[in-house]
Design a protein that fits this description.
By secondary structure, the chain is mainly beta. It has helices at residues 31-37, 96-99; strands spanning 3-15, 18-20, 26-30, 44-49, 55-63, 70-73, 85-95, 105-107. Strand 4 (44-49) and strand 5 (55-63) form a beta hairpin.
Length: 117
Amino acid sequence: MMQIEVLKSKIHKVTITQADLNYVGSITIDEALMEAANLIENEKVHVLNLNNGERIETYVIRGERNSGVICLNGPAARKAAVGDIVIILSYAYMDFEQAKHHKPTLIFPDTRTNRLI
């Protein structure tokens, strides 16, 4: 069977709250946002920076629930500044026919607070 990669989850427009260069790597995301977007810890994500056009791949670390934290860690911290707006995407492989009916999970938090509206 043919498998294709499709959008699974999207957190649309959240604000970077921290950038920690002295960390192994990853992106820390508020646990409430993770759950709403159907993301799990260690899942691979793409981070698209609307301020500078950077696109990076990294993995998710669970942040404190309802904290609004969006923190790029390690080398990724060089790709965004605190206050930058990003979009976070994850993808999944599935059967071509199944993908035709797939609906990704899309969330649109408040960009100022990174909390669900």
